[in-house]
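[Automated response] Your request has been received and processed.

Submitted sequence:
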Amino acid sequence: MKGSYVILSLIFLVLGFLISYSFQLTREKAKGETLSPEQWDKEYQIRSQLITKEEINRDLQKELFEKQERVEEIEASLKEEKQVYYNLVEDVEKYRMYVGDVAVEGKGVQVTLEDASYVPDGENVNNYIVHESQIFSVINELYISGADAVSVNGQRLSRHSYIYCNGPVVTVDGNQFPAPFVISAIGDPNVMIPALNITGGVIDQLTYDHVVVAVEKKDKIVMEPLLNEQKDSAS
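Generated structure:
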């Protein structure tokens, strides 16, 4: 029995120690988690500042989105204006090309007209040579089918150009050229060549008039700008 009391005493002693230690630990922990009034005020201020900053950030984010939308609208407007200006510049360049102010180059067509190599006895020679009306028919067909620029024997034509026949030579803007007459046109050859060769069209008519015609597709044709004196003489 005495041994039992000793064991029980030891058990109660250990249990008491554990209870005392647990109470002391809980007390210290509770004491450690308790905030002083100053600490509460400081934490409240920090939380208030954080909430205020979050509200400011939300407002700034909203303002940023609005400005981004405005920037997108301005960019779209500038894009439209840029396209308008681009179209205007493109039109100006086309007009300058048409009036001969700038040099032009590109693919196109070359049409060569020659007098007939044989004139039957007793026939009128004038019926076997190239006349200005036949040159005009080729030039007109080329313009109708989309030619951007046309020249005759290297003489670039303008809106004021004139062509007339004087015996065996043809005068273009004051410059005389003998046959053969080489008519060059810058444009889409896949459009101009079929237009020239259409049944009953220009080529058929020239052949019927005893004119020797040759049509060539050119990958590159270069035409220099018209000089001021050439424009003045043409006008």
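Summary generated for your ticket: Residues 1-8, 229-235 have pLDDT under 50 and may be disordered. The CA atoms of residues 155 and 175 lie 8 Å apart.
If you did not submit this request, please reply to this message.
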